[in-house]
Design goal:
- The complex is a heterodimer of chains A (about 325) and B (about 475).
- Chain A is an all-alpha fold and about 325 residues long.
- Chain A has one domain.
- Chain A has helices at about 5-35, 40-50, 55-70, 75-80, 85-105, 110-135, 155-180, 185-210, 215-225, 230-250, 255-275, 290, 295-320; strands spanning about 140-145, 145, 280, 285.
- In chain A, the strands form 2 sheets. In chain A, strands 1-2 form a two-stranded antiparallel sheet.
- Chain B is mostly helical and about 475 residues long.
- Chain B has a domain at about 225-400.
- In chain B, the strands form 3 sheets. Chain B has a two-stranded antiparallel sheet with strand order 1-2. Chain B has a two-stranded antiparallel sheet with strand order 3-4.
- In chain B, strand 5 and strand 6 form a beta hairpin.
- In chain B, helix 1 (about 1-45) runs antiparallel to helix 4 (about 120-155), helix 1 crosses helix 12 and helix 4 packs across helix 6.
- Chain B is globular, with a radius of gyration of 24 Å.
- Classes of the chains: A mainly alpha (about 325), B mainly alpha (about 475).
- The interface between A and B is large, with 74 and 84 residues.
């Protein structure tokens, strides 16, 4: 039996998107939490906790986008025009918060501006990513290999709600990251926000688990039809388990556990979306196989991906390892 | 019909605007990453602290420029889909994997080791830190290789067939990557990046030599940069000439536009130095020309016939005026760079490299010249590719996404406002950093314990007695 390259590629792209969501999720979350920490010193430490890794985190977004163009060009060519406005806003948000990492250390007078750019850009990017996800879940009209909908189709109560939910979810990742990476009063306050964001994330996951199946018959069948209904029992149980770990870690001061629990919640939520979508890549319009690039393209890139992605994971882990442990509040920037 | 034309023009302008801003940063960071690797290598080898303070000085500037390159680059990776979706669907199977390899082999490498390079010296020690610096430098070069393979394929496509869905299907990846213009374009661009950086470093060195505030370090930078200028500028002119001959072979209409040759010249074409291309009348007004010289340059024969744009259907002409002028700006700067390089050699031979104030003034003026030349060069080659996206196979007008003009206009305005704001501020910060050599304290910033750790230029920290770097 020949290797099912489109399926394998869908798994790799899904992995890249998940890696992006959890990695950039926590550094976007740190930006979302910026307004809640007014002290300059706290903000310096928060920024320093993500400064060495944010760039690598964001590279997964480029892999998600560039990879999609390479292996599912038709999905790339229909999803991106459909989500034109939220994606452009996301890019602009990422610009503001990305440059803030360097700019805010270069000026004292203008520092508040770049703090604002970091927080605002992180929020806009997070919210619009959530909106884009919601719009994708709701489905994208495709005719003759092109997006066939209108310019405001992405804007619905559902997509606004997913946007807000992702904002809360990223705040949870950011808060638990700070619990893990900082100490003292900053960590104590991060625990406080982690608990609130954790409750919010759990609520959001509950709401969307109930809401999504009714937006599209495909999802209803998936979650209430046999045998996939098993997931409907399994996934919520695991979600509750992660939430329990989050609460336990926060209460007992096991500072790494809440972050692990938050990652677990995101992996489960992501798996839930994957279960809903399969076998579609553009829900209700294009399957993985319909959107796949010609075999020659998939085969050429898979060789590199199978060798290089493990290497990338290797040196990414190394880079995180170099900066392991709590951030030293006295340690400066470069 | 009329509205779709507008949307295409707006999308073109948006792509041109965002990619023009973007290319400035890689053009600088490719060269600067290599320069940083050289500086750190020299520091480790000679133990001379001058190299280490210079490394830290340029590292901070690199961090800013690289950050701007990253965020403006993410925009590019999405804009193919948002604004050029038909192109993405059709050409994605060929250029997508090339960009995929760029991400996998270069972007992750740069990003993974950048954090260590910027923040990790105390944590990993000088040897591993040098390795990280090397990886960043290698990453920028790998990145240039893949993206130029993709760009060159759009200029001189090879190794593909077209399937029933109208997609370009790769048949021979070797032919795709090593398409006819790729080697020339890669060499030309990497040399351009090195020259750009050399002139920035030289300009900054000259500025501080003129101010006389840190003569030792300023002289070191200036001398290194002028070696690069003197050596690379002539190589670049030669490489550019080779690239031009390659273009003549594969994209003759582009060369006709560069040369302003509306008419064919059966017995030796003139070299038009200056003039005003008049596409309506298909002639160059007020032309100052040297007879038969164009044939000599392009065909190495005074009397060789050269075809003009009259052999190409009007609807397939590239915009002549833009290509004609952009080409002259690039070549003019190239020769000015050569001139400065030769002048520096003369001064070096006379022993006045560190004293000749007119040389220093000229170097300051030429500091940003590389950026102008790079932009002019890209305008020449990209506008010269029109009216195609994939030369000879896919028209620009058939590549654009079905986005209505008002949506594109809105995003274009947003990009223009944000880019001028953000990159204007970044340029200001970079210029301010360049104006302060190591150990000069920031004027308007205090010395509180945290703040000083945060913003004092790293060398001030690194050269404190007892700091870890001295043990190295």
């Amino acid at each position: 039996m020949a290797l099912d390259l489109p399926f394998l590629w869908a798994a790799i792209i899904a992995f890249a998107v998940l890696a992006y969501v959890i990695l950039d999720g926590f550094d976007l979350g740190v930006g979302i939490l910026f307004p809640f920490f007014k002290e300059k010193h706290d903000r310096d430490v928060m920024m320093n906790s993500v400064a060495p890794v944010w760039d690598g985190n964001e590279t997964w977004l480029v892999l998600g986008g560039g990879g999609l163009m390479a292996v599912f060009p038709l999905a790339y060519a229909t999803i991106l025009p459909a989500l034109y406005m939220p994606l452009i806003l996301m890019l602009l948000g990422l610009i503001f918060r990305g440059v803030a990492f360097e700019y805010r250390w270069r000026t004292r007078r203008g520092e508040f501006l770049w703090d604002f750019a970091f927080a605002g850009g992180s929020m806009v990017a997070s919210f619009t990513q959530g909106v884009a996800l919601g719009a994708l879940v709701q489905g994208i009209a495709v005719e003759n290999r092109a997006y066939a909908g209108g310019w405001w189709d992405w804007l619905t109560p559902f997509s606004i709600a997913t946007g807000l939910a992702l904002l809360v979810g990223y705040a949870l990742l950011g808060a638990t990251w700070l619990v893990m990476k900082t100490s003292g009063d900053l960590a104590a306050r991060a625990r406080h926000y982690a608990m609130r964001a954790g409750i919010g994330t759990l609520a959001a996951m509950g709401i969307f688990s109930l809401w999504t199946p009714f937006t599209e018959p495909l999802y209803f069948e998936r979650w209430f039809g046999w045998p996939t209904v098993i997931f409907s029992v399994l996934v919520p149980a695991l979600v509750l388990g992660c939430f329990a770990l989050l609460v336990y870690g926060l209460k007992t001061r096991h500072d790494a556990w809440p972050f692990v629990a938050a990652l677990g919640l995101f992996v489960l939520g992501f798996a839930g979306i994957g279960i809903s979508f399969y076998p579609y890549i553009v829900p209700a319009s294009l399957t993985i196989w319909e959107a796949a690039a010609p075999h020659e393209s998939l085969a050429f890139l898979i060789v590199g991906a199978l060798v290089l992605v493990p290497m990338i994971l290797g040196y990414t882990v190394y880079a995180y390892w170099v900066f392991r442990g709590k951030v030293d509040p006295e340690e400066g920037y470069h | 019909m009329f509205e779709s034309l507008d949307a295409t023009l707006l999308a073109r302008f948006q792509f041109a605007f965002t990619v023009s801003f973007h290319i400035i940063f890689p053009a600088f960071s490719i060269g600067l990453a290599s320069y940083l690797a050289v500086l750190e290598g020299l520091w480790l080898w000679t133990k001379n602290e001058v190299y280490f303070t210079l490394f830290n000085f340029w590292k901070t500037i690199f961090a800013l420029a690289f950050g701007m390159g990253v965020v403006s680059g993410i925009v590019m990776s999405y804009q193919f889909g948002t604004n050029w979706s038909v192109f993405s669907d059709k050409a994605g199977p060929v250029i997508g994997p090339l960009m995929g390899y760029e991400v996998l082999t270069a972007f992750f490498l740069e990003a993974g080791f950048l954090g260590i390079m910027l923040f990790g010296l105390n944590r990993v020690g000088p040897k591993l830190h040098f390795f990280a610096t090397l990886m960043v430098a290698v990453g920028t070069l790998i990145s240039a290789t893949w993206i130029l393979a993709a760009n060159s394929w759009m200029q001189t496509p090879a190794g593909f067939s077209i399937n029933e869905a109208g997609q370009f299907v790769p048949i021979d990846w070797w032919a795709v990557i090593f398409n006819p213009s790729f080697p020339y374009r890669l060499v030309h661009m990497v040399l351009a990046a090195y020259l750009t950086t050399a002139f920035v470093v030289g300009g900054v060195g000259a500025f501080h030599l003129l101010r006389g505030d840190a003569p030792k370090r300023a002289r070191k930078m200036f001398s290194m940069a002028m070696w690069m200028a003197a050596i690379v500028a002539p190589i670049q002119i030669f490489a550019g000439d080779m690239h031009g001959l390659n273009t003549l072979e594969h994209q003759p209409a582009k060369v006709m536009a560069m040369e302003g040759h509306y008419q064919s010249h059966p017995d030796g074409a003139p070299l038009i130095l200056f003039g005003i291309p008049n596409s309506a009348e298909q002639r160059v007004d007020y032309a100052v020309e040297l007879p038969k010289l164009s044939s000599l340059i392009l065909k190495h024969d005074l009397n060789a016939p050269l075809a003009g744009l009259d052999t190409v259907p009007r609807e397939l002409h590239p915009p002549v005026g833009i290509v004609f002028w952009a080409f002259r700006v690039m070549v003019g700067i190239g020769f000015a760079m050569l001139g400065l390089g030769l002048w520096s050699l003369w001064c070096r031979w006379r022993g006045t490299l560190g004293e000749n104030r007119w040389l220093h003034r000229a170097a300051v003026v030429m500091g940003p010249a590389g950026f102008v030349a790079v932009l002019a060069g890209w305008v020449t080659t990209e506008v010269g590719r029109q009216p195609y996206t994939v030369y000879g196979h896919l028209l620009t007008s058939q590549s654009v996404a079905p986005i209505a003009a008002p949506a594109v206009a809105t995003s274009l305005i947003a990009f223009i406002v944000v880019y001028f704001l953000i990159f204007g501020a970044g340029t200001f910060y970079i210029l301010r950093l360049m104006g302060r050599l190591p150990r000069d304290p920031m004027p308007d910033l205090g010395e509180g314990p945290i703040r000083s750790a945060g913003i004092t230029p790293a060398p001030a920290i690194a050269t404190k007695p007892g700091s870890q770097h001295h043990g190295a």
